[in-house]
Amino acid sequence: MKIRTYLRGIIIILLGVILLANNFQILSWGVWYELLKFWPVILIAVGIDLIFRKSSLSFLQILSPLVIIAAIGGAIYLSQADRAYEITGQALRFEQPLSPELKQADIEISFGAGILRLGGTSTKGEFRP
């Protein structure tokens, strides 16, 4: 079997792994938006394939699937780059009345995994993060 056949199989497997990761919420569906930005890569890969198909440098046809695999990797990377700004829609509100004598408070928050955004305001007699 030719190496190109293996690489095309790897591309199909990668696409399947991405879909599986989407279904299990390991990757966001935004990866497909990022992958769509790389549509010119398909033209580049087809061009590489056509140029080197019947030349003495036919071993360079391996570049065609490698370019596509690189585009898939780039799309996955770009879809995860802004993951810290994902909106989940889940919010926890915490309010605690404080005595007027209290000038400062330390708060310890412990959670297993996730993203924490802490903001708040304070008014006389209470602290709200």
TrEMBL record:
Keywords: Membrane, Transmembrane, Transmembrane helix. Residues 9-51 form the LiaI-LiaF-like transmembrane region domain. The chain crosses the membrane at residues 7-29, 59-78. InterPro entries: LiaI-LiaF-like_TM1. This is LiaI-LiaF-like transmembrane region domain-containing protein. It comes from marine sediment metagenome.
